[in-house]
């Protein structure tokens, strides 16, 4: 039945414009949500790096497992249009649930900015992610194919152009969302307290998914909707299962062996289908090592994003958020694809090198392994700048002198001097209580809690010296913020605010709480009981911690900030995010060589009616790759992140060698020629069929018990035949 002609614009069906807009909005929704997902796990749900990585890759794995279900439902039951609509509703509902789960105010009864019922937020998040995985995966195999259905047989050129525009819309949605969503996340929002705006970061993708659904439904009357005609994947699975079952049933040596184990399906399935399944299995066998590539590739959104949180994102004209570094991948793809296709490959061809598709894929895997070596080298540089925090049986202490003269201090192991209103820059580590002696006075026994960092402030107490102990933070400030606090050595109560955050009233000889101040210039407002104000400004980087000392000599006025001293507790991030670009470049180069070539190779080696089976197999390798990551993240007990990078790189190199050996013994086939051999029955097959028909005729004539001459002649002819 020929397809109906709808409204056309410039030779293209008007319906495809609804499909392209739908795909752009859907990809924006998916990649926008996914860009901030691992940071949401870490900073909102308060999960550690390993568990955040595990759940992230579990979600991605589900997104690549559900397309198989979506394809079966569309081809065997609902059809592509209804499948897209119904699963898009599920998808949009999941995005809305995710946005609601990120609203901290819904369970923040005491209005302190921290949800009181975190279990509810976790439950909503998991439900939302499950719905999103089912929705995005379910419509994945349907939308592109549904767009292709809109063209008639004489519109081959327009169909080809449509697919180019379609994949451009995917990259455009991915790129824009990965830039915009982290910016939305970095905003402050909330009813009672202002927090990172994850509801907005998830809410905008949810709105885009609703728009995608509405746009797709609006074009309903213009679409060519083909009825479901059965799914080839189901038929292939049934054929394979029957061959295995039949072979097991005839496993006795009494039965003659067959050339291929799939030949045991000949009793039920025709030889053309069996030959096609053999070709598919031959390619799927090569897929076995491929998940390891995706195990490394998809860590751009998890481990590499977490790595960026410990780096300096100040690029001068702009400040890059850690989750925005993922935009390097789609940007490099747009650059690398034409460079590789029109420059690199032609140069290799001119050098007379036989750069086969499987060799290209091997090179792509090797480049991905190199990318993780580069990530490990960057991690080593980051680790060198990180502070050494105390273990569970250690204590650390830093000393600050708030006396207006030099002091000599001894802790039983070493002697050192501190100037007036000065702090020691490094922490001293202890494993047991120690004696503190100030200016050769009476020693004081200091006992600190295990696993803590402490600041010991020395103050004047009449004619003698006393000390006050305050606990410090024992981790880098979250999200690249700077943990700032004040010690009030002034003679009266001071009230300090920064932005919309308040330190409250700080009494003399006391330490304020820590407040996280974002990168940039922080402006602090200090007031005394009389309402006199001092404005103190300080420029901050990423991930530092400072204690600011307000001395007794502090004077309000225009230059009041000059007398405030600072003590550095944690150094700011000093390794620039730009150092991640080489690893992104290597990974993207590997993706271009591996992924694009892999799909082209698979299609060239697959029968014409089984492209979808290989597409499902390809997506399955992505899912298995993400499962590998979550297994390693949970099972590996490596203490250092750089060691985990090297582990993944080594595993991929090993798999790369195995794949190269498999590729060496692979024989390229032409599916069209093989299918042509079975298009018409072979002479032997014809003879067998004619003989069977002859025997049947003879049996019928024997039953009639006809003994006339003509019957004898006919029997003779059949015997001669």
TrEMBL record:
Belongs to the major facilitator superfamily. Proton-dependent oligopeptide transporter (POT/PTR) (TC 2.A.17) family. Keywords: Cell membrane, Glycoprotein, Membrane, Peptide transport, Protein transport, Symport, Transmembrane, Transmembrane helix, Transport. Electrogenic proton-coupled amino-acid transporter that transports oligopeptides of 2 to 4 amino acids with a preference for dipeptides. Transports neutral and monovalently charged peptides with a proton to peptide stoichiometry of 1:1 or 2:1. Primarily responsible for the absorption of dietary di- and tripeptides from the small intestinal lumen. Mediates transepithelial transport of muramyl and N-formylated bacterial dipeptides contributing to recognition of pathogenic bacteria by the mucosal immune system. The chain crosses the membrane at residues 12-33, 53-72, 84-106, 118-139, 160-180, 200-219, 279-297, 331-349, 361-382, 613-633, 645-666. PANTHER family: OLIGOPEPTIDE TRANSPORTER-RELATED. The keyword Protein transport applies. PROSITE patterns: PTR2_1, PTR2_2. One of its GO terms (biological process) is oligopeptide transport. This is Solute carrier family 15 member 1. It is found in: Apical cell membrane; Cell membrane; Membrane. InterPro entries: MFS_trans_sf, POT_fam, PTR2_symporter_CS. Residues 682-721 are annotated as: Disordered. It catalyses: L-leucyl-L-proline(out) + H(+)(out) = L-leucyl-L-proline(in) + H(+)(in); glycyl-L-aspartate(out) + 2 H(+)(out) = glycyl-L-aspartate(in) + 2 H(+)(in); N-acetyl-D-muramoyl-L-alanyl-D-isoglutamine(out) + 2 H(+)(out) = N-acetyl-D-muramoyl-L-alanyl-D-isoglutamine(in) + 2 H(+)(in); L-alanyl-L-leucyl-L-alanine(out) + H(+)(out) = L-alanyl-L-leucyl-L-alanine(in) + H(+)(in). Residues 683-707 have a biased composition (Basic and acidic residues).
């Amino acid at each position: 039945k020929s397809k109906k002609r709808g409204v056309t614009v410039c030779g293209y069906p008007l319906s495809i414009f609804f499909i392209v807009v739908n795909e752009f909005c859907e990809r924006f929704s998916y990649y926008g949500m996914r860009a901030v997902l691992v940071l949401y796990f870490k900073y909102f749900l308060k999960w550690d790096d390993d568990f955040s990585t595990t759940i992230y890759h579990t979600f991605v794995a589900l997104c690549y497992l559900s397309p198989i279900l979506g394809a079966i439902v569309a081809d065997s039951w609902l059809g592509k249009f209804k499948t897209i609509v119904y699963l898009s509703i599920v998808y949009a509902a999941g995005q809305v649930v995710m946005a609601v789960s990120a609203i901290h105010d819904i369970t923040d009864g005491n209005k302190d900015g921290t949800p009181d019922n975190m279990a509810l937020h976790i439950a909503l998040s998991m439900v939302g992610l499950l719905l999103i995985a089912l929705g995005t995966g379910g419509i994945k195999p349907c939308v592109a194919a549904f767009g292709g259905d809109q063209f008639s047989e004489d519109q081959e050129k327009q169909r080809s152009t449509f697919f180019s525009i379609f994949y451009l819309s995917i990259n455009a949605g991915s790129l824009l969302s990965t830039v915009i969503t982290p910016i939305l996340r970095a905003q402050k929002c909330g009813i009672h307290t202002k927090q990172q705006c994850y509801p907005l970061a998830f809410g905008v993708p949810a709105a885009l998914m609703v728009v995608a659904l509405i746009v797709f439904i609006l074009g309903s009357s213009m679409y060519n909707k083909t009825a479901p005609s059965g799914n080839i994947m189901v038929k292939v699975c049934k054929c394979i299962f029957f061959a295995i079952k039949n072979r097991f049933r005839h496993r006795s040596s009494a039965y003659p062996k067959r050339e291929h184990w799939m030949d045991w399906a000949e009793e039920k399935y025709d030889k053309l289908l069996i030959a096609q399944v053999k070709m598919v299995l031959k390619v799927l066998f090569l897929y076995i090592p491929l998940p390891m590539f995706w195990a490394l590739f998809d860590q751009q959104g998890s481990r590499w994003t977490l790595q960026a949180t410990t780096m300096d994102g100040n690029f001068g004209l702009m400040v890059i958020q850690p989750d925005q570094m993922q935009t390097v991948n789609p940007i490099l793809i747009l650059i690398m694809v034409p460079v590789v296709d029109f420059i690199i490959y032609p140069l290799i061809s001119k050098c007379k090198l036989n750069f086969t598709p499987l060799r290209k894929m091997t090179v792509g895997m090797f480049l991905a392994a190199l990318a993780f070596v580069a990530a490990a080298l960057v991690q080593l540089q980051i680790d060198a700048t990180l502070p050494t925090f105390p273990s569970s049986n250690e204590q650390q202490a830093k000393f600050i002198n708030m006396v207006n003269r030099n002091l000599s201090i001894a802790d039983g192991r070493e002697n050192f001097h501190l100037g007036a209103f000065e702090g020691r820059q490094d922490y001293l580590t202890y494993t047991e209580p120690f004696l503190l002696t100030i200016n050769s006075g009476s020693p004081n026994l200091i006992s600190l809690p295990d696993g803590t960092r402490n600041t010991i402030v020395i103050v004047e107490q009449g004619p003698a010296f006393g000390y006050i102990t305050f606990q410090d933070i024992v981790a880098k400030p979250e999200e690249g913020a700077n943990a700032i606090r004040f010690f009030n050595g002034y003679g009266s109560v001071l009230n300090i605010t920064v932005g919309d955050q308040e330190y409250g009233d700080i009494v003399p000889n006391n330490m304020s709480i820590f407040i996280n101040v974002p990168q940039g210039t922080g402006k602090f407002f200090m007031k005394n009981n009389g309402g006199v104000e001092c404005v103190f400004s300080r420029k901050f980087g990423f991930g530092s911690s400072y204690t600011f000392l307000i001395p007794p000599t502090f004077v309000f006025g225009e230059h009041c900030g000059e007398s405030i001293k600072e003590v550095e507790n944690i150094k700011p991030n000093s390794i620039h995010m730009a150092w991640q670009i080489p690893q992104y470049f290597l990974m993207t180069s590997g993706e271009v060589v591996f992924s694009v070539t892999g799909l082209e190779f698979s299609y060239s080696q697959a029968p014409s009616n089984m492209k979808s089976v290989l597409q499902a197999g390809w997506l399955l390798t992505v899912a298995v790759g993400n499962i590998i990551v979550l297994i390693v993240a949970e099972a590996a007990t490596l203490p250092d992140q750089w060691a985990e990078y090297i582990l993944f790189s080594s595993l991929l190199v090993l798999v790369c060698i195995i794949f190269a050996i498999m590729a060496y013994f692979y024989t390229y086939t032409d599916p069209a020629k093989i299918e042509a051999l079975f298009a018409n029955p072979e002479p032997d097959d014809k003879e067998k069929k004619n003989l069977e028909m002859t025997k049947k005729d003879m049996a019928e004539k024997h039953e009639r018990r006809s003994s006339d001459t003509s019957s004898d002649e006919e029997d003779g002819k059949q015997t001669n035949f």
